[in-house]
Amino acid sequence: MRGGGHKDVEQTNYRYQVAVYGDRRSYIRRDGAEFLFGSDKKKRYRDVWERDGRRCVDCGLLLPFEAMHPHHRLERSKGGDDSLANLETLCSADHRQKHRHWR
Ligand SMILES: [Zn+2]
Asked: Alpha-carbon distance 58 to 93, whole Å?
């Protein structure tokens, strides 16, 4: 598991460790996959946007945070998580392009 700002984790008696900062619904699975909600998710998207230089990784367009589209490289529905490694910054046009098969 990457550090990623999780100061401590609290062991639960089941499959998940629960992040103790921010929104308690977020969790880290034993294999390190992170699933974030609420304020944790918002914070993660901001970290992704900062990491990508506040630009769309496809076309290089400079984006205000409000306009960034967080893209999961591996879709959530296919098991992708909310880790930094699985997220990238896109503009709305390129995000639509990536998901054009959705219709
Ligand atoms: Zn773009």
From this structure: 10
Distance 86 CA to ligand 1 centre (A): 17
pTM of the model: 0.74
**Virtual CA dihedral for 61, 62, 67, 70, nearest 10 degrees?**
70
The Å distance, Cα 68 to ligand 1 centre, comes to: 9
At 37, list the tokens: 């909600």
Centre of ligand 1 to C-alpha 51, Å, is 16
CATH class of 9-98: alpha beta
Domain ranges of the chain: 9-98
d(CA 55, CA 60): 5
pLDDT of 8-62, one tens digit each? 444 443 445 555 445 567 888 878 889 998 888 999 999 999 999 999 999 999 9
- According to DSSP, the β-strands at 34-35 and 69-72 are unpaired
